[in-house]
Write a structure and sequence with these properties.
Elements (H helix, E strand, L loop, with lengths): L20 E6 L3 H13 L2 E6 L2 H10 L4 E5 L7 H11 L7 E5 L5 H10 L2 E4 L4 H12 L1
Parallel strand pairs: 1-2, 1-3, 3-4, 4-5
Helix pairs in contact: 2-3
Length: 139
């Protein structure tokens, strides 16, 4: 039996470690949330879903996320309320939210956006804009 010598150190292949970023997508529109999950996973993000603010709050307490993509108008706990509670539990998430809404012109929502200086996209938005926004947030 012939002995196999491993490659010298300088000839060994370089294995690049891929650091995956975890993103929580929160939207009561299950079809949209699932579509965003597939799109972001295709961009090498680890994606978790929640379909209302209460479920999202449980997930934020249990897991650490690098970013949150969140709808505003949802049952049980609205996106703005979830944001304020999540900020208390995980202060580092405060500047890692991207809100998605079809109601950006609503005065209460506009006031929330201005007061907290959060990032948001107005539905419908292009996928490339969302991906760019998430990547900018995480760089």
């Amino acid at each position: 039996m012939k002995h196999f010598d491993p490659l010298p150190h300088e000839m060994q292949p370089v294995i690049q470690s891929l650091e995956l970023k975890a993103v929580l997508v929160v939207d009561d529109d299950k079809q949209l949330a699932s579509a965003l999950q597939w799109i972001l996973a295709d961009e090498n993000f680890l994606v978790d879903l929640a379909f209302d603010g209460e479920e999202a709050m449980m997930k934020v307490k249990a897991h650490e996320y690098d970013a949150v993509i969140c709808d505003l108008k949802m049952p049980k706990l609205r996106g703005d309320e979830f944001y304020l509670k999540a900020k208390e539990v995980r202060p580092t998430l405060a500047d890692r939210f991207i809100f998605i809404t079809g109601f950006a012109a609503d005065p209460h929502i506009a006031l929330f956006f201005n007061k907290h200086e959060v990032k948001y996209l107005v539905k419908p938005f292009s996928i490339s804009v969302l991906i760019d926004c998430v990547k900018q947030l995480l760089c």
